[in-house]
Amino acid sequence: MHVHATIYHALCIGCTLLLPNDFLTTVLLMVLAVIHQYFYYLLFLTPVYQEPSCHCAYCEEMTPAAFVHCMRCHGCFPVTYYHSSMIGRCVMPHHMKRYLGVVKIFASTNVLCSAIEAIAYPPMLIAAVFHLAVLKSIYVAAKVDIKG
Asked: Which range marks the domain in which residue 22 is found?
């Protein structure tokens, strides 16, 4: 999903570059794209605990007692993590909610900007409908994926 969202961000920023007098919208979308990449990076951070270690029978490594082995990721993660099918890795629920929140904010901003631009440029109404479809697909995927 991240690759698709990044391509979507790049195309939206490219479209705003083509429109006249749209500098502030372009800057807003660029800032949201940077925040999106940062929250994606946060999904891949795993905390390091300095606790007595246990031996994991699956990966044959020493892990803290609060870690469990994920058969899909083939690694040990804290018990508070869950496996996200969208990312393909175990993540903390609140990190995933923040990541999807930024993607939803980006798509919502595009819907709003497209609707406002449709006043001056009526063909932009097609872009607003497209952004609404993207936003709907994100909401459907988020309901299925996030637990907790």
From this structure: 2-145
Which 3-state string (H, E, C) describes the chain?
A: CHHHHHHHHHHHHHHHHHCCCCHHHHHHHHHHHHHHHHHHHHHCCCCCCCCCEEECCCCCCEEECCEEEECCCCEEEECCCEEECCCCEEECHHHHHHHHHHHHHHHHHHHHHHHHHHHHCCCHHHHHHHHHHHHHHHHHHHHHHCCC
Residue 148, pLDDT above cutoff 50: no
Confidence of residue 146 (pLDDT cuts 50, 70, 90): low
Adjacent-strand bridge partners of 53: 64
Tens of pLDDT, residues 2-21: 888 888 888 888 888 887 77
Encode burial over 12-43: b for 16+ CB neighbours within 10 A, e otherwise. bbebbeeeeebeebbebbeebbeebeebbeeb
Q: Total structural domains in the chain?
A: 1
The percent of residues above 90 in pLDDT, for the chain, comes to: 5
